[in-house]
Protein backbone atom coordinates (compact mmCIF):
# COMPACT_ATOMS: atom_id res chain seq x y z
CA UNK A 1 0.00 0.00 0.00
CA UNK A 2 2.84 2.35 0.91
CA UNK A 3 4.51 1.61 -2.43
CA UNK A 4 1.35 2.53 -4.35
CA UNK A 5 1.04 5.81 -2.42
CA UNK A 6 4.69 6.64 -3.12
CA UNK A 7 4.25 5.94 -6.83
CA UNK A 8 1.17 8.18 -6.95
CA UNK A 9 3.06 10.93 -5.15
CA UNK A 10 6.00 10.71 -7.56
CA UNK A 11 3.58 10.77 -10.50
CA UNK A 12 1.99 13.92 -9.13
CA UNK A 13 5.39 15.61 -8.79
CA UNK A 14 6.31 14.72 -12.36
CA UNK A 15 3.08 15.67 -14.09
CA UNK A 16 2.08 18.66 -11.98
CA UNK A 17 5.51 20.24 -12.29
CA UNK A 18 5.57 19.68 -16.05
CA UNK A 19 8.39 17.12 -15.63
CA UNK A 20 10.68 19.71 -14.05
CA UNK A 21 10.94 17.81 -10.72
CA UNK A 22 10.96 14.15 -9.79
CA UNK A 23 11.31 14.74 -6.05
CA UNK A 24 10.21 17.61 -3.82
CA UNK A 25 13.75 18.54 -2.81
CA UNK A 26 14.25 19.75 -6.39
CA UNK A 27 11.44 22.32 -6.12
CA UNK A 28 12.91 25.79 -5.68
CA UNK A 29 11.39 29.16 -6.57
CA UNK A 30 10.29 30.02 -9.13
CA UNK A 31 8.13 26.88 -9.02
CA UNK A 32 6.81 25.10 -12.09
CA UNK A 33 3.16 24.10 -12.34
CA UNK A 34 1.41 22.24 -15.17
CA UNK A 35 -2.30 21.70 -15.77
CA UNK A 36 -4.74 21.49 -18.64
CA UNK A 37 -1.92 21.00 -21.15
CA UNK A 38 -0.16 24.21 -20.13
CA UNK A 39 2.68 25.07 -17.79
CA UNK A 40 3.97 28.21 -16.12
CA UNK A 41 6.11 29.39 -13.24
CA UNK A 42 5.13 30.71 -9.83
CA UNK A 43 7.42 33.44 -8.54
CA UNK A 44 8.08 33.32 -4.81
CA UNK A 45 10.55 34.16 -2.09
CA UNK A 46 12.90 31.43 -0.98
CA UNK A 47 11.29 30.66 2.37
CA UNK A 48 9.73 27.55 3.86
CA UNK A 49 6.13 28.76 3.62
CA UNK A 50 6.17 29.13 -0.16
CA UNK A 51 7.54 25.61 -0.60
CA UNK A 52 4.88 24.25 1.78
CA UNK A 53 2.11 26.02 -0.16
CA UNK A 54 3.43 24.71 -3.46
CA UNK A 55 3.46 21.16 -2.17
CA UNK A 56 0.03 21.35 -0.53
CA UNK A 57 -1.82 23.07 -3.37
CA UNK A 58 -0.11 21.61 -6.44
CA UNK A 59 1.41 18.25 -5.51
CA UNK A 60 -0.87 17.10 -2.66
CA UNK A 61 -3.96 18.83 -4.16
CA UNK A 62 -5.11 19.85 -0.69
CA UNK A 63 -8.17 21.62 -2.10
CA UNK A 64 -9.03 18.73 -4.47
CA UNK A 65 -9.16 21.24 -7.31
CA UNK A 66 -7.91 18.79 -9.94
CA UNK A 67 -10.90 16.55 -9.26
CA UNK A 68 -13.25 19.57 -9.21
CA UNK A 69 -11.94 20.57 -12.65
CA UNK A 70 -13.10 17.25 -14.10
CA UNK A 71 -16.73 18.15 -13.45
CA UNK A 72 -17.06 21.94 -13.37
CA UNK A 73 -16.08 25.00 -15.38
CA UNK A 74 -16.48 28.03 -13.12
CA UNK A 75 -16.61 31.47 -14.69
CA UNK A 76 -16.02 33.46 -11.48
CA UNK A 77 -13.58 32.34 -8.78
CA UNK A 78 -12.72 34.07 -5.51
CA UNK A 79 -9.51 33.32 -3.58
CA UNK A 80 -9.57 34.78 -0.05
CA UNK A 81 -6.13 34.47 1.47
CA UNK A 82 -4.42 34.20 -1.91
CA UNK A 83 -0.92 34.72 -0.50
CA UNK A 84 1.56 34.63 -3.43
CA UNK A 85 -1.12 33.31 -5.79
CA UNK A 86 -0.44 29.59 -6.17
CA UNK A 87 -4.12 28.57 -6.02
CA UNK A 88 -5.20 31.47 -8.25
CA UNK A 89 -2.49 30.70 -10.80
CA UNK A 90 -3.46 27.03 -10.88
CA UNK A 91 -7.08 28.04 -11.48
CA UNK A 92 -5.96 30.32 -14.31
CA UNK A 93 -4.52 27.23 -16.04
CA UNK A 94 -7.42 24.89 -15.26
CA UNK A 95 -10.10 27.49 -16.09
CA UNK A 96 -8.52 29.92 -18.58
CA UNK A 97 -11.77 31.82 -19.23
CA UNK A 98 -12.63 32.37 -15.56
CA UNK A 99 -12.33 35.73 -13.84
CA UNK A 100 -10.42 35.30 -10.58
CA UNK A 101 -10.50 37.72 -7.64
CA UNK A 102 -7.47 37.19 -5.39
CA UNK A 103 -7.64 38.83 -1.94
CA UNK A 104 -4.42 39.23 0.04
CA UNK A 105 -3.51 41.98 2.55
CA UNK A 106 0.09 40.98 3.35
CA UNK A 107 2.47 43.43 1.60
CA UNK A 108 5.23 40.82 1.22
CA UNK A 109 2.94 38.24 -0.36
CA UNK A 110 1.28 40.93 -2.50
CA UNK A 111 4.53 41.68 -4.27
CA UNK A 112 4.70 38.09 -5.53
CA UNK A 113 0.94 37.85 -6.15
CA UNK A 114 1.03 40.86 -8.45
CA UNK A 115 3.94 39.35 -10.37
CA UNK A 116 2.16 35.99 -10.69
CA UNK A 117 -1.08 37.62 -11.83
CA UNK A 118 0.45 39.28 -14.89
CA UNK A 119 -1.03 38.21 -18.24
CA UNK A 120 -3.85 36.28 -16.53
CA UNK A 121 -7.48 36.92 -15.60
CA UNK A 122 -6.44 37.25 -11.94
CA UNK A 123 -7.57 40.53 -10.37
CA UNK A 124 -5.35 41.36 -7.39
CA UNK A 125 -7.33 42.77 -4.44
CA UNK A 126 -4.98 44.06 -1.69
CA UNK A 127 -7.45 43.64 1.17
CA UNK A 128 -8.41 41.49 4.08
CA UNK A 129 -12.08 40.43 4.10
CA UNK A 130 -14.41 40.91 7.05
CA UNK A 131 -17.87 41.99 8.12
CA UNK A 132 -17.31 45.66 7.31
CA UNK A 133 -14.93 48.17 5.77
CA UNK A 134 -12.35 49.06 8.40
CA UNK A 135 -8.67 49.29 9.20
CA UNK A 136 -7.37 46.12 10.85
CA UNK A 137 -3.96 44.87 11.94
CA UNK A 138 -2.05 41.98 10.38
CA UNK A 139 0.45 40.00 12.42
CA UNK A 140 3.19 39.41 9.85
CA UNK A 141 5.97 38.47 12.24
CA UNK A 142 5.86 34.84 11.16
CA UNK A 143 6.05 33.52 7.60
CA UNK A 144 3.78 35.41 5.20
CA UNK A 145 1.80 32.21 4.60
CA UNK A 146 0.64 32.18 8.24
CA UNK A 147 0.06 35.90 8.80
CA UNK A 148 -3.29 36.61 10.43
CA UNK A 149 -5.52 39.47 11.44
CA UNK A 150 -5.01 40.19 15.13
CA UNK A 151 -5.48 43.03 17.61
CA UNK A 152 -1.79 42.65 18.37
CA UNK A 153 -0.80 42.80 14.71
CA UNK A 154 2.12 44.93 13.57
CA UNK A 155 0.91 46.13 10.13
CA UNK A 156 -2.26 48.15 9.47
CA UNK A 157 -4.16 46.83 6.43
CA UNK A 158 -7.46 47.66 4.81
CA UNK A 159 -10.35 45.25 5.30
CA UNK A 160 -13.37 45.30 2.99
CA UNK A 161 -16.89 44.13 3.74
CA UNK A 162 -17.68 40.63 2.49
CA UNK A 163 -20.72 42.03 0.67
CA UNK A 164 -18.26 43.78 -1.68
CA UNK A 165 -16.24 40.65 -2.52
CA UNK A 166 -16.24 40.11 -6.29
CA UNK A 167 -18.31 43.29 -6.55
CA UNK A 168 -21.30 41.45 -5.10
CA UNK A 169 -21.56 39.05 -8.05
CA UNK A 170 -22.60 35.37 -7.86
CA UNK A 171 -19.53 33.18 -7.24
CA UNK A 172 -19.01 29.77 -8.83
CA UNK A 173 -16.04 28.76 -6.67
CA UNK A 174 -14.88 30.32 -3.41
CA UNK A 175 -11.64 29.25 -1.77
CA UNK A 176 -10.75 30.51 1.69
CA UNK A 177 -7.54 30.21 3.70
CA UNK A 178 -7.31 33.17 6.05
CA UNK A 179 -5.71 31.74 9.20
CA UNK A 180 -8.75 31.94 11.45
CA UNK A 181 -10.53 34.97 9.96
CA UNK A 182 -13.03 32.53 8.46
CA UNK A 183 -14.85 32.57 11.81
CA UNK A 184 -15.55 36.28 11.39
CA UNK A 185 -16.43 36.06 7.70
CA UNK A 186 -18.85 33.16 8.12
CA UNK A 187 -20.85 34.98 10.81
CA UNK A 188 -22.58 36.74 7.92
CA UNK A 189 -24.07 34.14 5.52
CA UNK A 190 -24.25 36.59 2.59
CA UNK A 191 -21.01 35.50 0.93
CA UNK A 192 -21.80 31.78 0.98
CA UNK A 193 -25.40 32.33 -0.11
CA UNK A 194 -24.16 33.71 -3.44
CA UNK A 195 -21.51 30.98 -3.79
CA UNK A 196 -22.12 27.67 -5.55
CA UNK A 197 -19.03 25.68 -4.47
CA UNK A 198 -16.91 26.43 -1.41
CA UNK A 199 -13.58 25.01 -0.27
CA UNK A 200 -11.61 26.18 2.72
CA UNK A 201 -8.73 25.44 5.03
CA UNK A 202 -10.34 25.56 8.46
CA UNK A 203 -8.57 26.30 11.74
CA UNK A 204 -10.02 24.93 14.98
CA UNK A 205 -8.01 27.21 17.24
CA UNK A 206 -9.32 29.30 20.16
CA UNK A 207 -11.79 26.55 21.17
CA UNK A 208 -13.65 26.56 17.84
CA UNK A 209 -15.16 23.22 16.80
CA UNK A 210 -16.15 21.41 13.62
CA UNK A 211 -19.75 21.34 14.82
CA UNK A 212 -19.71 25.14 15.10
CA UNK A 213 -18.26 25.40 11.60
CA UNK A 214 -20.85 23.03 10.15
CA UNK A 215 -23.67 25.07 11.69
CA UNK A 216 -22.37 28.30 10.16
CA UNK A 217 -22.09 26.73 6.72
CA UNK A 218 -25.50 25.06 6.84
CA UNK A 219 -27.14 28.33 7.93
CA UNK A 220 -25.88 29.79 4.64
CA UNK A 221 -27.90 27.17 2.69
CA UNK A 222 -24.86 24.99 1.98
CA UNK A 223 -24.54 21.24 2.18
CA UNK A 224 -21.19 19.89 3.37
CA UNK A 225 -19.66 17.50 0.85
CA UNK A 226 -16.45 16.49 2.60
CA UNK A 227 -14.24 17.23 5.61
CA UNK A 228 -10.61 16.10 5.49
CA UNK A 229 -8.61 16.71 8.70
CA UNK A 230 -4.82 17.06 8.58
CA UNK A 231 -3.60 14.63 11.20
CA UNK A 232 -0.13 16.18 11.35
CA UNK A 233 -1.94 19.21 12.82
CA UNK A 234 -3.80 17.04 15.37
CA UNK A 235 -6.89 17.49 13.19
CA UNK A 236 -7.14 21.19 14.15
CA UNK A 237 -6.55 22.09 10.51
CA UNK A 238 -8.20 20.52 7.49
CA UNK A 239 -10.04 21.00 4.22
CA UNK A 240 -13.81 21.38 3.95
CA UNK A 241 -15.95 21.37 0.77
CA UNK A 242 -19.56 22.45 0.57
CA UNK A 243 -22.06 23.25 -2.15
CA UNK A 244 -25.15 25.43 -2.30
CA UNK A 245 -28.35 23.42 -1.79
From TrEMBL:
The keyword Methyltransferase applies. InterPro entries: FkbM_mtfrase, SAM-dependent_MTase, SAM-dependent_MTases_sf. Residues 79-222 form the Methyltransferase FkbM domain. SUPFAM superfamilies: S-adenosyl-L-methionine-dependent methyltransferases (SSF53335). Keywords: Methyltransferase, Transferase. It holds the Pfam family Methyltransf_21. It comes from the Bacteria. The keyword Transferase applies. Transmembrane segments: none annotated. GO terms for biological process: methylation. One of its GO terms (molecular function) is methyltransferase activity. NCBIfam families: fkbM_fam. PANTHER family: METHYLTRANSFERASE, FKBM FAMILY PROTEIN (PTHR34203), SLL1173 PROTEIN (PTHR34203:SF15). This is FkbM family methyltransferase.
